[in-house]
Write a structure and sequence with these properties.
It is a single chain. The protein is an alpha+beta fold and 281 residues long. It has five helices and twelve strands. Strands 1, 2, 3, 4, 5, 6, 7, 8, 9, 10, 11 and 12 form a twelve-stranded antiparallel sheet that branches. The N and C termini lie far apart (55 Å).
């Protein structure tokens, strides 16, 4: 019995080796599948948990928000219904609770503005089907045109064969207005040509997506996302996270972390009405 994992790995890698491992072909299939997977997600309702945290330069927690949504499909997009919320901020050595997103406890509340804009841009992009900012991960056919890809190798991931593909911006778009901003690696399921995990970091200038973060010095900007299969052709991002540091005017400094988890997937009809728990009396 102890030899089964090794045999499984050899069998899986042999199957991959038997196929053409051309990175251009791999990514072309991934690009085509991205649209199909996005369309398939429109038939599912699921629960989403978000955790947003900001720490001061000395490491002390400055602000935190925990949010829980039910996410339902609408035509070409999604609708989020906030079911739970808990926020708190530090004030004169004490933590003060608040009960709604976008809360500001003073006229100029930089932390409040920043944490709200961060969530909207990175987790609630209305141009996508799942809320993740479309510019963060260069997998769609359109975004792939801006990047160079390299096949690193093959491996086993969750008992499935996977290609490891590295990417970086093409030289002519690295500093152009087209903004190819990321470098990193992707694990691609070798049977279905769907991404299973991505790791990205900032390759060049700050992308438009995060220029809202005071437009100043941002370090350590990077994100990771994990996908899982739920049905034929249906792959969802199930976890997402990132951490970075922002420095602004007047010694403003924050370390910011973002995490998201999707769960409790249920298939539904996009034309049906979703009844939320808080709507039932």
């Amino acid at each position: 019995m102890e030899r089964i994992p090794g045999l499984l790995l050899l069998t899986a890698l042999a199957a991959v080796a038997a196929e053409p491992a051309d990175v251009a072909e791999i990514m072309a299939r991934v690009g085509a599948n991205q649209q199909r997977a996005s369309d398939a997600r429109q038939s599912y309702v699921y629960r989403q948990e978000q955790l947003l945290r900001m720490h001061r330069g000395n490491g002390k927690l400055a602000r935190e928000e925990r949010l829980e949504y039910v996410v339902a499909p609408v035509k070409q997009s999604f609708e989020k219904h906030l079911e739970k919320f808990a926020g708190r901020y530090e004030f004169k050595g004490q933590y003060v609770a608040y009960d709604r997103p976008g809360y500001q406890y003073k006229d100029l509340d930089l932390d409040g503005d920043l944490i709200h804009d961060m969530a909207e841009d990175m987790l609630n992009d209305q141009k996508s089907r799942d809320g993740l900012g479309q510019d963060l991960f260069p997998l769609t056919a359109v975004e792939q045109r801006k990047y160079d890809f390299r096949l690193v190798g093959t491996e086993l991931y969750r008992d499935r064969s996977a290609y490891r593909v590295a990417f970086q911006p093409k030289p002519h778009v690295r500093d152009s207005e087209d903004e190819a901003s990321w470098k990193g690696e992707a694990l691609i399921d070798a049977a279905e040509y769907q991404p299973v995990r991505l790791e990205t970091s900032l390759a060049g200038k700050i992308p438009a997506l995060v220029k809202v973060l005071l437009g100043t010095d941002i370090k350590g900007l990077g994100f990771s996302v994990t996908y899982r299969k739920f049905a034929d052709g249906v792959w969802f991002p199930v976890s997402y996270g990132g951490e970075f540091e922002v420095r602004g005017l007047f010694f403003y400094k924050r370390k910011i972390s973002v995490s998201m988890r999707n769960s409790d997937f249920r298939k539904t009809d996009v034309n049906s009405t979703v009844v939320y728990a808080t709507d039932v009396h």
